[in-house]
Amino acid sequence: MTIGSLQPGVAPDSVLPAAAAAAAELTTVEASDLAVVAGSARATVRFTADDAASAVRIGAHTLEGTRARAGVITWQVTERVHGRWLPVR
């Protein structure tokens, strides 16, 4: 997710834990990370899912949990295929 502006009164360091907690409500969270890419904050939450439909559902739930704290400019669910991260279809 590319993170935009924070909701009023939200501490910047609370956004990533909230995103990971939202995903953890539905599945196992393997990792989470925050990076600055091309001048924008990018939050990544890596989680397990049984299939593409479940992954998209979990991703959407994580998105909504994140939007409670910050605007999300873009988001995408990806999967690892032969060492590459590809969009879930």
Order of helices and strands: EHEEHEEE
Cα(first) to Cα(last) distance is 17 Å
The total strand number stands at 6
Number of domains: 1
* Overall form: globular
Low-confidence stretches: none
Largest sheet properties: 4 strands, antiparallel
**Strand order, sheet with most strands:** 2-3-1-4
Structure description:
29% of the residues lie in helices and 39% in strands. The strands form two sheets. Strands 2-3-1-4 form a four-stranded antiparallel β-sheet, covered by helices on one side. Strand 2 and strand 3 (40-47) form a beta hairpin. The mean pLDDT is 96. The chain has helices spanning 15-24, 52-67; strands at 2-6, 29-37, 40-47, 70-74, 78-81, 84-87. The protein has one domain. The protein has two helices and six strands. The protein is globular and about 40 Å long. With 89 residues, it is α+β, with helices and mostly antiparallel strands.
Descriptive keywords:
89 residues; alpha+beta; four-stranded antiparallel β-sheet; two-stranded antiparallel ribbon; 2 helices; 6 strands; 29% helix; globular
Write the layout of secondary structure elements.
Elements: E1 2-6, H1 15-24, E2 29-37, E3 40-47, H2 52-67, E4 70-74, E5 78-81, E6 84-87
Antiparallel strand pairs: 1-3, 1-4, 2-3, 5-6
What's the short version?
The chain contains two helices and six strands, in the order E-H-E-E-H-E-E-E. The chain has 89 residues and is an alpha+beta fold.
